[in-house]
Specification:
4-stranded antiparallel sheet; alpha+beta; 160 residues
Length: 160
């Protein structure tokens, strides 16, 4: 009885493997358009001059999980010799603290910083207008969350 059972299990396993091999080319063919579509999106973004960066996360505070940390993500473009930045700041926990995004850049006039805050979501549209002719050569971002713009800050990250 045991040998018959083993033979049946072996035959079933061999049949399922054969069916899987036969279906493999069909499943590969069905996924090709999806990967082609995603490649087209990437090519469109590169052709339009969008250079994506992020996400940048806030530091951990009061035992928060990674899913509750604030974050910023965006992209930059170059238009008319100027660099423009776009992005979104998200405050994912439902506490009464605010999220802050810091922008720091350097040009021939020195180092500069600008801070924005939100308690939900903020969209940044066409921030900057920096020119290489003014020595613009660095742009960094960091995200903080708390009662103060210096609380629970993540690391500085490069956007270039």
């Amino acid at each position: 009885m045991s040998m018959i059972r083993t033979a049946l299990v072996g035959a079933t396993l061999a049949g399922s493997l054969a069916a899987g091999v036969a279906a493999a080319p069909a499943s590969t063919a069905s996924t090709a358009p999806a990967s082609t579509a995603s490649a087209a999106v990437v090519q469109e973004a590169q052709a339009s001059g969008k250079h994506f960066f992020g996400p940048y996360h806030s530091g951990f505070g009061r035992g928060e999980s990674f899913g509750k940390r604030s974050y910023f993500k965006g992209y930059w473009t170059k238009d008319g010799g100027r660099y423009w930045f776009y992005g979104d700041l998200f405050d994912r926990d439902r506490d009464r603290d605010r999220s802050y995004v810091w922008f720091k850049w350097h040009d021939r006039f020195g180092s500069h910083t600008k801070v924005f805050k939100t308690s939900g979501r903020s969209h940044f549209h066409r921030f900057g207008g920096f020119k290489k002719s003014n020595g613009f050569d660095d742009f960094k971002i960091r995200v903080c969350e708390g009662d103060d713009k210096f609380d629970d800050c993540g690391r500085w990250g490069d956007a270039f």
